[in-house]
């Protein structure tokens, strides 16, 4: 289980928001619920986690998204 933060790219600041994230390691499932009134995000998602190809210090171990990362834009 983890907390949720809103990341502001212009100021590079992070602020805690109401919500939570649960990662089930045995199945790779991620459940996220966010209730961020200030930034207008109130939703929940069930996602599939995928291991990152490049790992190391300050890099994520897995990524979960609601878009297909294999498509080129």
The total beta strand count reads 5
Low-confidence stretches: none
Helix content: under 10%
What value does the average pLDDT take? Answer: 87
Hey, roughly how much beta strand do the residues contain? Answer: over 45%
Distance between the termini: 32 Å
Structural class: mainly beta
What Rg is obtained from the alpha carbons, in whole angstroms? Answer: 14 Å
Biggest sheet strand line-up: 1-2-3-4-5
| H-E order | EEEEE
- Alpha plus pi helix count: 0
Largest sheet: 5 strands, antiparallel
General shape? globular
Secondary-structure topology with pairs:
Blueprint lengths: L1 E7 L4 E12 L4 E8 L4 E11 L10 E3 L9
Antiparallel strand pairs: 1-2, 2-3, 3-4, 4-5
Which terms summarize this structure?
single chain; 73 residues; mainly beta
What's the short story on this structure?
This protein has 73 residues and is mainly β. It is built from no helices and five strands.
């Amino acid at each position: 289980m983890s907390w949720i933060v809103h990341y502001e790219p212009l100021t590079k600041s992070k602020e805690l928001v109401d919500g939570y994230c649960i990662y089930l390691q045995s199945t790779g499932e991620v459940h996220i619920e966010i209730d961020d009134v200030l930034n207008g995000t109130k939703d929940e998602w069930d996602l599939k986690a995928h291991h990152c190809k490049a790992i190391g210090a300050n890099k994520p171990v897995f990524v979960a998204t609601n878009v297909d990362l294999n498509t080129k834009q």
